[in-house]
Design a protein that fits this description.
A five-stranded parallel β-sheet has the order 3-2-1-4-5, with helices on both faces. The chain is globular and about 45 Å long. It has six helices and five strands; from the N terminus they run βαβαβαβαβαα. The protein is of the alpha/beta class. Helix 2 links the parallel strand 2 and strand 3. The longest helix has 18 residues. It has one domain: Rossmann fold (3-Layer(aba) Sandwich). The chain starts with a strand and ends with a helix. Bound molecules: 4'-phosphopantetheine (PNS). 4'-phosphopantetheine binds next to strand 1 and helix 4.
């Protein structure tokens, strides 16, 4: 059986924690779709196409093996994307009990909606404190985010926009 999983997120921007989860998931499934979910009602730091490009380059730079594709999605339910591509599993990285509490209702709803299961992966504890919102804040105030993000992202954020 060809197992397809989807790793969704805002990835605004991708962090080392995300990359770690992508690496683990890529080794567990025949196909992994990293899905940049764009919520039109939420303002974002990076344009969607830029987020996709940075994820692709970060995956290549990290030498992540496996059948990984990066794409974006902005319309409808996440499970509709899963059904369209034949994915039966969603992958979520959980850093803490707070993440588990936040993700649990979504996991149950997604299973009820379309039978799509959610698998929680634990990132390396070294990344437990890293989040995209923290990176956006530190970067916006002129701080160094290179310990928290792939090199391509740190370089991108250093450029004037
Ligand atoms: O990186 P984030 O911001 O934590 O990602 C959250 C995301 C995009 C994965 C989450 O908001 C989500 O699952 N959105 C899909 C919308 C949807 O299908 N909702 C209904 C069932 S939960």
């Amino acid at each position: 059986m060809h197992r397809i999983a989807v790793a969704p997120g805002s990835f605004d921007p991708i962090t080392l924690g995300h990359l770690d989860v992508i690496d683990r998931a890529a080794g567990l499934f025949d196909e992994l779709h990293v899905l940049v979910v764009h919520n039109p009602d939420k303002s974002a730091l990076l344009p969607v196409a830029q987020r996709v490009s940075l994820i692709e380059r970060a995956i290549a730079d990290a030498g992540i093996q496996g059948n990984v594709t990066v794409t974006s999605w902005s319309v409808g339910l996440l499970v509709d994307y899963c059904t369209d591509v034949g994915a039966s599993v969603l992958i979520k990285g959980v850093r803490s009990q707070v993440d588990v509490a936040y993700e649990t209702p979504m996991a149950i709803v997604n299973r009820n909606l379309a039978g799509v299961e959610t698998i929680f992966l634990l990132p390396d504890p070294a990344h437990a404190h890293v989040s995209s919102s923290l990176v956006r804040q530190v970067s916006g105030l002129g701080g160094d985010v290179s310990p928290y993000v792939p090199k391509v992202v740190a370089e991108y954020l250093q450029q004037p926009h």
